[in-house]
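Hi R.,

Quick one: here's the DKNYY family protein sequence you asked about.
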Amino acid sequence: MRKIIALVYLLLLVRATYAQSPAPKPIGIADTVTASVPPYNFGWYRIDPVKKTIANYTMTGGTTPEGVMWDGYTYVQDKTINYKKTTLILFGDLNLFKENFPIKEDFKNLRALYSRYGYAILKSKRTIYFYNIGRNEVKSVDISGFTAITDSVYTDKTAALFAIYNEKLEQITDGAVLDAASLKHLARDYYTDKNGLYLLNKHYRPSLEKETFEALKVEDSEGMAGASLVSANYFIYNSHVYGISDQVNRLTLNADKLIEIKWNDETYSLTDGEHSYEKDGGNDYSESNRPSLEWFKTTIEYFKEKHITIETVLPFRLHLFERGTDSLYMPLSNGNFKYDYSKDKSGFLIKTSDGYYRPYDPRKIPQKIEQLTIFNRLTKKDEPFDIAKFKNPAETVIIYDNQLYINGYHFNKAIDIGNLRPIGKTGFLTDGKVLICPFGEASSYGVYDGEVVHDFKSIIRGVDISKLSIISNSRLTDGTYLYLGATVIPIKTLSMKLKIFPDNQ
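And here's the predicted structure, written out as tokens:
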């Protein structure tokens, strides 16, 4: 009996505390605060425009009258935040309020030079701030006596050049002479001007017995167009591939044949079919020399030995199931498929000149797939996989035979699939008329005529796509509404000031 009572307490608590904001409504929801305006969840905060309160998501617990201990989570009002006077600050996916923001400047004078992963570099007229958001720590540099060449390079009254480096303003005292008029920041400590590519960094000078901050010329421009930033992990300059690093990290790769493979959210491989480099977590691209980074090395060596050419890589989130020896099946929305998770081989596939291969163990050669079949929704039959019918506009999104699937389930809505495209480097998609959030929750589920159908909450109509700006991978705004994933929030209903520092894409 005591266990039953405790369970009832816990269910009631979970029902009350885990309640989220209602499903997103179409554009046209109330722009004014009325009794019908719901509380909105911003990460750990819950904003209630009707009650004018801001609460924190907090752990709670206690003991039932029968002596049974229980715990859970609830929202507790944060009385340190003055609802009528505060400013809601969005650093990408992170949420702050003016009361816990340590930089005491007028928000209209601040803009972000960089904001990502809980770290921001902000600039005002006189100061550059380096803000560790998680620790709520700030360092600053006074730039009032300098003239900006770029947001990260400055000159003083003597025409000496200075650059932002390791949260300081360092004078460039050695190395190549930079052309200030054409100088551009490329990535991390890499810069370009009309004459070449440079790395601004500290180098130890034995003759001086100290470090000097210098502009190291990496290569000449040779009259070429220069650099093109291809990825957050590497860039190409004059057809040469460089890993983004604190040191010169030129990779022996053919820039015209590059394929970058995302193994998971932290691990990548970069290859041209002849050589491969890998990175893990915060490390830079390097040759595979650790067990955790040998995923693709064995595969590349095997392909080179067998003279097999990589043509393309199918995404790592594919739902694949074993069907006999060296045979794989993509069920997609096949409601008649009996899932046997002991045969789950989900991952990604490599299409080569010798058919399909599946890397599955860093210590073994990849598995040759002799037969690859897929369920075709249009014919309601299985068929040999045809890559000409396959598109992958986002990690969780597949188009096969002009049918749209999200997380393996058919998206049962009218979409202009031919124009479907991602919005920047976010998780959002659009066909130019509607906004789609592929990571939205399914609002219904069923099997109809042998097909699994998920009706997602994540389609938002009536949005002027041209006015959308990116806040983060999962947040957008058009100046009137905030789109937090699939949740639409009219900014006016918050009844508070709002400052947005978007993530760097």
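Helices lie at 2-17, 295-306, 491-494.

Cheers,
M.
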